[in-house]
Amino acid sequence: MVQTTCPSVLAQGTCADPLCQYEHNAYNCTLCSLVFGDQTTYKHHLSTKNHLNRVGGETGSLLFCSICGKYVSGIKNWHGHVSSAKHASQAAIKGMSPDVPPEEPEQVPGHQLCVVCNRHIPSRFWARHPSQPQHKEREQFLKFTSAVEETEKDKNGLSVVGDFDFKIVEPEKAAAGVVVGGTIQTQVPATRIALIDIRLASLKGEKTLSPFTVTLNGSTRTITSRSALNFNVKMSQGHIGRAEDRLELLFEDVRLQSHFMITRPLSVIVGSKADHDMLKPKAPYVPRKRTERQPETSILEGEAPPSTKAIPYVDRLPPAPIPGHLASTLSTGPVKEILSRMQRMYIPQVLTSTTYAKHFKHLIWAEEFQMDHDLEYYGINDAQLSRFNSYYYLKVPGLAEKRPSVLVGDRILARRPSSPKATGVKEMFMFERFFIRFKLNRYPVRRQHQALDSAFSQDRVLFPSSSHIPRAIPRTTAPAAMRWYNPLIAGNAPQTQAVLSIIYRERGSMPFVIFGPPGTGKTVTMVEAILQVLAMSSTARVLACAPSNSAADLIASRLAPHLKPTELFRAYAPSRSKDEIPTAVASYTHKNGNGHFSVPPMIRMLRFRVIVTTHIFVDEAGQATEPEAMIGIKSMADNNTNVVLSGDPKQLGPIIRSTVARALGLEKSLIERLMEREIYDEVQGYGKSVVKLIKNFRSHSAILKFPNEKFYRGDLQCCGDPKVINFYLNSQHVVKKTFPIVFHSTCGKDDREASSPSFFNIDEVTQVKALVQSLRSDRTLRITDNDIGIIAPYHAQVLKLRTALRAVADGVKVGSVEEFQGQERRVIIISTVRSSKEFVEYDLRHTLGFVANPRRFNVAVTRAQALLYIVGDPSVLALDPLWRGFLNYIHQNGGWKGSSPTWDTRAPVDEKSRYDAEVRGKAQLDMNEFTRMIEALTIGGVQALQDGEDEDVNVNLDRPWNEVE
């Protein structure tokens, strides 16, 4: 869409430029404080969740559907209604699009509108509604906002002149201090007003220190038409971030003996103006409209890439389409209703070896349904194709970030916007613009269905119990003649025990778990066990699996020095790029005559020692769904096969997009489910069913201490190389010389832009960039870009950080927590992003989003070797008990920078506490206090306020009664 509306109108609602060439028509949503440049975008905004939440909340006011002529209660029910078959049928009958914004009726039969809550209340409940807590809270908030707005107005002929928005101040100037002047004046003759008090709202009992100070020039406090008062507001802050306060001026009209207050908001952004100009939102956030879901009724197939036929499969994959009735269930109604129907109609009540396949097949279908639905977000409405020889090229925004992920062999549908049918490749040259839709690659889910349909379903693998514990206790010491491929394992008791438990295990035993916390060498242990299994028996065969190419490549590259190409085979998908293959692994692959990755003939496959099937090793098993893990296990195992799982259920699990599938257990990996069983207790089952590795070779003890105690019972031992883990001790980059963790308190602002729902925080970007510059410019402690890793939980923040660092340190890896699992860096910087101040109207637990996920937290804080640096807003992070405990740990050990914590960091953390409720309650108390203060001024309560008396006591004693007519 071409920008035609004035940017000033979009940003501020007005334009002062008389020569402006832009259009000044704008659509203003006063409820959301947003301005839109065109009617289409504005109408779409009216149907978004953010707007509807403000209209009526989750179960708020009634919304009217003009198509069906009925009222719908709240946003959740609205979304269920417009996605229903009945609504679609009514829209088709009337020849209208089913995607209509809800109307907000002023009158609803049988209801009364509560103007405070903006909700239609059934008449039978109206009498008791005003006494409900939500109504009272909302009423108090409206009183507070009204009181604030009233005090910000000039009154009684008096005006307070001055601009107290310091805007963006560079850190060097902010540290030195910036001063702005203000004037209190009146032009009304015979007016005589006295300034009783001039103060900051933050100084009234608050623990936090304000960067603002106010001083009155001169000793006089009387304002007349001939004499004004001047004052200065100074802002001084030594760290990047935002600050707000309220200047309160208390006056007495000497002639009338009345009292009143005028206030002015104070604000500043300490940071880089260049960063803000470069990274600020390009346009107001408007959720992107999903491309309309339309089934393909006629498709002209293109020519499949040769690589899709590179592997001669023996068994055909089952189609395994989502059953129509299940798809209808998944597409109709709120999530709670869908979940209830799934549990009632499809999911077996008890998970056993008999019901196993049915249970997980429905979870896979639920996840597939959601993934297919999510792909609609990436549809391109006006795409242009470029032609080169016999091929056509499509530019896909976000492809490098795998948003969407498109691989060789995936299907992309293209059609003319005016045509209901997909267009074949051969006809593309006839048209210039296309509607593009991406289709989910179903091969992975079809393989999971194939595995679940297999006959192998032994309880000793799926549901091991005490009856499956090995009869012979595995050896606890290695034979003297045993040759270790990695000598370091011989000196590590848990690693040694894990290897011995695997190689001396009876055939057909229950799965064995290598529980590997961060940096303890679980992959090294697994590789050693594979090599020892092969050394012990010439008939042993191994299938080594992993949920990602990078994890599989790591296994292959560590096995390669010990095995010949005739013994080890690394299987790749035919679509795998040859440029991504590690050099050490290349000779262990097979290509067909066309140069595509394939598999050798069966006679050669049977000669490999590391493929199948007396031992199945699954590395990083915690990151795979259970059906994914079963592709190797159920397809290959027999009565004599032993299964070894290596991973850490305390770190990130598989990524599941479907809320329904997640709630039904698809997010729980096989290794996590097994370790919840009593026989996998890491103490009682040691050596028999599980070995927990405890020697951490990665991190400094201070970095390891908190996650060790929270997630690993305090068992982990710091065994890292002192030259590495002590690298930043006694350096300029830490606050306390012996403590290599820094929390930099940064009060910023989380933003969104255009159609991206992801959050970013420019203030934190500036802080992170400054830190990277400081680290890279250090001539004493020299490091490279590759020594630094930056973790951000939101994709938008990742992109903003990369943009800001492009000219500073382009080689620094910036990514999500998921991208850093299994990795380490000498320095890890975490930008937590969220920084919300909506304490009263919003449940602040939601502002943390997945920042507060314990596993994501665990992975993020355990990647650093020598320096862990966190940038974030403590007032938001501390709402989560886990983060509060970690911030307490940092503050007590002297690693804090920036504004001080607003809570007692020595107080014990209540793991079940609703700290968000406490913050909201405190905010309400502050609002109530301010509102009562303003009310008290109307009856001459200034002295009581100054003396700190309770102005609520007998507040109505001297108030006159209204005359009743």
From TrEMBL:
Its EC number is 3.6.4.13. The lineage of its organism: Eukaryota, Fungi, Dikarya, Basidiomycota, Agaricomycotina. PANTHER family: CANCER/TESTIS ANTIGEN 55, CANCER_TESTIS ANTIGEN 55. Pfam families: AAA_11, AAA_12, MOV-10_beta-barrel. It is found in: Cytoplasm, Cytoplasmic ribonucleoprotein granule. SUPFAM superfamilies: beta-beta-alpha zinc fingers, P-loop containing nucleoside triphosphate hydrolases. This is RNA helicase. Residues 29-51 form the C2H2-type domain. Its main location: cytoplasm. GO terms for biological process: regulatory ncRNA-mediated gene silencing. Keywords: ATP-binding, Cytoplasm, Helicase, Hydrolase, Nucleotide-binding, RNA-binding, RNA-mediated gene silencing.
